[in-house]
């Protein structure tokens, strides 16, 4: 009888084991605040005097509303535009490790509105949010 109980115990122990993913990732409330960044090709000399003098890049705010196991990574999953040039956008814009978008002061991005899909991922999980951030080049 003890052998039967032991065998049943071992059987259920093996059945209960499965490949559990490490960590978690919740992006239901993910957003940027504000979700739009305006990049000026010819910035106003009075309002943007410091940026013009030091050639500071345009930098967005970081992403908000993510819960998950660190490290959490971000990358551009896609760019949509009706009036811009996606290739020049990819050459100039970067999504930093802190989830902020950075556009160099001197850039060759064509004027237009760019809707950016962001891939948010960590070990075992990957989610893409469409049109999560907007960059307007004017």
TrEMBL record:
Domain of life where this protein originates: Bacteria
Record protein name field: DUF4625 domain-containing protein
